[in-house]
Amino acid sequence: MTSRAIETGQPAVPAGTSLVLYACIPASLGALADGIVDAARRRAKEAHCLIVAEFVDQADPLGDRDGCPGWHNALATVEEGKARGIVTPLMVMLSRGKVEHLAAWQQRTGAYLLTSSVIDTPEANGLLTQGAA
Q1: What 3-state DSSP class applies to 49?
Q2: Alpha-carbon distance 74 to 97, whole Å?
């Protein structure tokens, strides 16, 4: 099992790992949203990972995820074995109001969580970079 200790930087996700990209972006951002999603794409590329699917919900990133189909699709993509984890611009986009749910899901699936943020990391949200598989 991976330690829950907060580390400087994010532990490495193995090269070649397939990831799904998920973002929850307010519609009011318009074209700025592209840069936010591009940052997650760059982070996956820097980690030498492959993005196999992308889901972007236009919603309040601080709101609940229950009404966000992209969030459910991202989780399902990992559960179905089509990806080994999720890359996101900010962890709050995955876990807002759902940290316990996401932590249990991660433990069950062994999924990697990766973010382009240096502040809003899995560890800072009480999550692991990878769950126990």
Answers
A1: coil
A2: 17
Instruction: Answer with the residue of higher pLDDT: 2 or 57.
Output: 57
Q: What are phi and psi of 44, to 5 degrees?
A: -65, -40
Evaluate whether 115 touches 43 at the Cβ level (below 8 Å). yes
Going by C-beta distance under 8 Å and a sequence separation of 6 or more, which residues neighbour residue 131?
Answer: 2, 103, 105, 106, 107, 108, 109, 110, 111
Distance between CA atoms of 104 and 123, rounded to whole angstroms?
15
Spatial neighbors of 30 by CB under 8 A, at least 6 apart, are none
Q: What is the pLDDT of residues 38-64, one digit of tens each?
A: 999 999 999 999 999 999 999 888 887
More confident residue, 11 or 17: 17
Tell me the whole-structure pTM to 2 decimals.
0.79
- Report the run of H or E that residue 99 belongs to, with start and end: helix 99-109
Which of 17, 36, 18 lies closest to 27, judged by CA?
Answer: 36
